[in-house]
Amino acid sequence: MDVYHGEKSAEFFWNDFVPKFYPKLMTSLEQEDKVKAMTEVIDSEFKVYLDTLHKLLNEKADKKFLTSDSVTIYDICLGGAMTNMFLNPKNPFIQLWQAHYDKNASDLVKKYTDDFKTEFADYLSTRFEADK
């Protein structure tokens, strides 16, 4: 069941969330239009993402991560997206993502994100961060 739960989590991210998010991220809009597009995605799709992540974590509330007390590939998928894309300090839209995360992420999602950051502290402190 843990593999099923992990696969369900990854499927949600790659097949439900990413197709709604990436097209707007990858377009070559003018900056003003990008801000508008990102705001729309964050206000609608990121809210769903945070709510769904909460539900997925709550299904295994006795575990530190998605399927166990250790990081799995599924955590690298979802936790990595949270730290490398949405909440990356060099993300040009960090203020939009961070404000929405701070306001709408449940305590469970915030704990998961913090636990993931702790596990990957060495990487996160030395990772390459592209300029804005």
TrEMBL record:
It comes from the Eukaryota. Residues 24-87 form the Glutathione S-transferase C-terminal domain. This is Glutathione S-transferase C-terminal domain-containing protein. InterPro entries: Glutathione-S-Trfase_C_sf (IPR036282), GST_C (IPR004046). Pfam families: GST_C_3.
